[in-house]
Amino acid sequence: MSDLNKIRNFCIIAHIDHGKSTLADRMLEITNTVEKRKMKEQLLDGMDIERERGITIKLQPVTMDYNGYKLNLIDTPGHVDFSYEVSRSLAAVETAVLLVDCTQGIQAQTLANLYLALEQDLIIIPVVNKIDLPAADIAKTKREIIKLLGCQEEEIICSSGKTGAGVKEILDTVIAHGRAPRANLNAAGADYPRALIFDSKYDEYKGVVAYVRVFDGQLKKGDKLKLLATKAESEILDIGIFRPDYSSTGILNAGDIGYVITGFKQVAECRVGDTLTANIGVNNSTKVQQLAGYKDVKPMVFAGIFPKEGNDFKELREAMEKLKLNDAALIYEPERSDALGFGFRCGFLGLLHLEVFQERLRREYNLDLIVTIPSVAYRVFKNDGTEIIIRTPQRLPDPTFIDHIEEPWVALDIVSPKTYLGNIIKLAQEKRGLYKNTEYLSTEGDDSRVLLHYEIPMSAILTDFYDKIKSVSAGYASINYEYLDYRRADVVKMDIMVAEDIIESLATIVYRDQAFREGKEVVQILKETLPKQMFVVKLQAAIGGKVIAAERLSAMRKDVTAKLYGGDVSRKKKLLEKQKKGKKKMMAAGKGSVDIPSDTFVKILKR
């Protein structure tokens, strides 16, 4: 058994782009975990998309040896859409390094991640990062941290991930002030090993690999493993630690963080948050209590994902099953669209989550996709007292059967310099936000920074809210949001009709007072992109039986008088009159026969 006092499990939490991955690189160098010839920037960011965007998407553990101690680090994401990854990391460690960029100060996600860490009762080590930059304001950032944590100034470490300054001091502080892991949390099951699965990955050659934190006992290669929630059983084919690649040790003791190659082939058998135990008899299975897992995450954004080629549906399904394994926040169900064929209705935590997911499908599985416009899940209360959840407009019942509809709201935090306060308040009001209160993070003249609290409909921040916040604040503002509750909404289903035929796949749920503008936009796009027919095509947006916006696509013109070479003008009029009658007949006979190209759907869905 390893000495628990010689182990420190910690993670780095911060806002996006505050230097977590760069700081982790320096730690790997200082502890000689990775050879210098193998060292590269953002070493723990394994995906190409992480390197290109400069963001961490997946948590990544690594074990380092330093001054006789075993340090287990988990590098976490910083974007609001991946806060679920952060919460899973925090459950596996005892200490958190709170990193703040001294050129930007405390941001919205810094606060959110800090609150998550405090909920888990972790030891917090405050660090001011990027002190080597010319724009660094160390004194101001320290004051913000002291106001937030109530700590002493000498407790705050100054560091630079780029130059390596202060990194040894961080590691020394983690050892000196970080909490050592505690074992035997559950006396009833202390005779049996227990490990929490905080992440998992599907490997083409190894099958399902579980990332675990061992709380009690010992896990060894060859042990018969069992998962307490799914009841799945298998054998530990290999076991080890991260350096940061798989490094087989054959054993993991209490307090260790490492991997277990489970031998499972089905992704559903190895759930994140489950408790893994080993060598447990049938009669003893009730003695072992499950570790506290994770609360079920609620996806807030829903979008349809369809293959461009219909015969890629099977490949898309298999790819999504594999990605679901190491993305516990993803949910999906099969869906069929008249326009786009078979696909899936997927639930995400936010737009970046959706964007990264579709990018991974394209890169890792070589799939061409069509992604529909994101929407939220509405709660519909019917007149007979029943309640249903709908994620697509097509499932909305007839208005005569609906008592009322509710939509999800979120608590929105906006951190911004005071200078841009007016612009941000105006934008939040336009998006139906309800102002709650303002907190001042620092009060130093024009450079003072404020924290605005709002309650706002989830649908209002879905598409372009993040971009608009950055635009009105010259890029300085940051946002964080979390689900609040459902509230009554005055929304209606808007149908789109082409040649008086309802196109189901173009239906949307809109606010009643914005329906005219939305409808006008859609029919205008249709007018610009639909190919002309031999007859005039009516393009209409309607709510119930009432048309709220309309355009006409003029008929393709054929010059029927071209063959005339002389004679009276009445001959020309006669031919034009005949053509007019023919067009009327075609319009009546050809109603609903307009073929809408797929690129028109994409333009409307992504408008």
Your description of this structure?
This protein starts with 6 loop residues before the first strand and ends with a helix. Helices cover 25% and strands 32% of the residues. With 607 residues, the chain is α+β, with helices and mostly antiparallel strands. The longest helix has 21 residues, at 569-589. Helix 3 runs parallel beside helix 4 (108-119). It has 5 domains: 4-177, 3-Layer(aba) Sandwich (Rossmann fold), CATH 3.40.50; 188-284, Elongation Factor Tu (Ef-tu), domain 3 (Beta Barrel), CATH 2.40.30.10; 301-371, Alpha-Beta Plaits (2-Layer Sandwich); 401-489, Alpha-Beta Plaits; 493-605, 2-Layer Sandwich (Alpha-Beta Plaits), CATH 3.30.70.2570. Strand 21 and strand 22 form a beta hairpin. It is built from 13 helices and 31 strands. The strands form 6 sheets. It has an 8-stranded antiparallel β-sheet, covered by helices on one side. The chain has a 6-stranded mixed β-sheet with strand order 2-3-1-4-5-6, sandwiched between helices. Strands 21, 22, 23, 24, 25 and 26 form a 6-stranded antiparallel β-sheet that branches.
List descriptors.
single chain; 607 residues; alpha+beta; Rossmann fold; Elongation Factor Tu (Ef-tu), domain 3; Alpha-Beta Plaits; 8-stranded antiparallel β-sheet; 13 helices; elongated
